[in-house]
Design brief:
56% helix, 111 residues, single chain, mainly alpha, 6 helices
Length: 111
């Protein structure tokens, strides 16, 4: 049974998903259109095993859903608003230094 995540939990899950470049690419690909794992693996240039692990993470985070399609399973964003959120995030991050990921990266050893 699915339950609604709290605001903090939802943001944490979204952050966990976005913490990996492959998962970011998967979310952006699924933002464009639902897809099958084999097609996603080919598009990403990664093994199906590696892709499966990332899709499992995105499923566990509640960001993607599976849709049975005959003998295959198609993946899509769990909610169309996630596509809009991804667009907003892409458009909001415009003042990022190219040599580091955050202002305290060198001092604090983060990012």
């Amino acid at each position: 049974m699915l339950t609604l995540a709290t605001d903090l939990d939802a943001l944490t899950r979204f952050g966990r998903a976005l913490a990996d470049p492959i998962r970011c690419r998967l979310l952006l690909a699924l933002r464009e259109a639902p897809a099958y794992p084999s097609d996603l693996a080919d598009m990403m240039g990664i093994s199906r095993t590696r892709l499966s692990n990332h899709l499992a993470c995105l499923r566990d985070c509640g960001l993607v859903a599976t849709v049975p399609d005959g003998r295959r399973t198609r993946y899509e964003l769990a909610d169309e608003r996630l596509g809009h959120a991804l667009d907003d995030l892409r458009n909001a991050v415009v003042a990022v230094a190219t040599d580091r990921t955050c202002v305290d990266a060198v001092d604090k050893g983060c990012c």
